[in-house]
Structures are given as structure tokens and as C-alpha cells.
Amino acid sequence: MIIFSMAKFNFIIKEAKLKVSLNSLIKQLATLNHFKTVIQVFDPDCIVNQSHLLGAYMDAELAFKSGSNISKTAATEMLLFLAMTNQIDAAIKKAGAKPGKSIIVFANSFAAYKKIKPVLCDEKDFDSSKSEMLSKARKLGIKISGDLDASIFEEMAASKLE
Asked: For helices 74-83 and 50-66, what crossing angle results, to 10°?
């Protein structure tokens, strides 16, 4: 049995613009991501809400604990769950940050986040209206049946069974 507790984690979820190129940021992230640290960037148009991010993070952590992970890093595994695919290229295309656009930053480490903070500007908390969340969910192919968060989690789980 795998037990996973969210109580011991502090997450940073921000929407921001970049002062540097996306490639430069991605290289920096590669040096920060390791066994316990997950810091990843996403396309805001593909993130339904904070639960979508947290669910993908939890699924990635659980995949590593159970040995069912597809990728070599929890950050990449999180991207796979978030995009609801088993293909890394497809996940990057679907939900990865895009050059010239705002990004969503997810970090499970304040220390790692502080290291990339100097390359961010116009930071704000990530939040979507109910209509935006529903629109994004439909765009991602999420079949909404009742609770939106439950529908997101079901789709993420089902995507790993395909």
C-alpha cells in the first residue's frame, strides 16, 4: 500500500511572463529538478485549475513510488499526467510552456522557485473563472460528469490505462 500525504508539502503555483527565452528557463529547470524537487512550467491554456496541477503532481509521485513511471523525472511524469498522455512529445506539444506566452510555474520547493524567480515578471497567483475552467476542460477532452475536479482526476487515471 502506498500512502501519500500532502500535509508536508508547500506548493508554489504562479502565472508569469519570462524575462529570458523559454529554452534558457528549461535548461535552468533541468539543473533544479532532482529526486525531491519538482519544478515545471506549463501552458496556461491547458491548465484547468490548481487541482489539475496538484493531481498531476500526486500521480507523478505515486508513479515513482510504485515503479510505474514512464519518464526519468517526476517533473516530466507530471507533464504526462497533466496532458493525459503516455507520449512525452505529445505532452510537451499539448501542455508544455510555449515561447512568447505566459507560463504557469509549479514548484514543490520554495528554494528552487527562488532560483528562477529573477527570470520571471508580472507574477500572479494562477486562478481561472468557472467558465474558463469548463472551457479548458472541454478543450482537453475531459468529460465532465458532476464535480469538475473528480472528472479531471478520472481522465488522468484513465489516460494511463490506454
From this structure: 130
Output helix, strand, coil percentages for the chain, rounded to the nearest 5: 50, 15, 35
Cα separation, 45 vs 138, in Å, equals: 12
pTM metric for this prediction: 0.88
Contacts of 69 by beta carbon, 8 Å cutoff, 6+ apart: 60, 63, 77
C-beta of residue 113 within 8 angstroms of C-beta of residue 40: no
Residue 146, CA distances (Å) to 42, 56, 81, 89, 143 in order? 26, 20, 21, 31, 10
Q: What is the pLDDT of residue 44?
A: 95
Paired strand residues for 96: 42
Cell numbers that stand for 37 in this block: 524537487
Helix 50-66 / helix 148-159 crossing angle, nearest 10 deg: 30
Query: What average pLDDT does this structure show over 88-111?
Result: 94
Tell me which H or E stretch contains 102. Answer: none
Phi, psi angle pair for 147, to nearest 5°? -70, 130
Distance from CA of residue 68 to its chain's centroid? 18
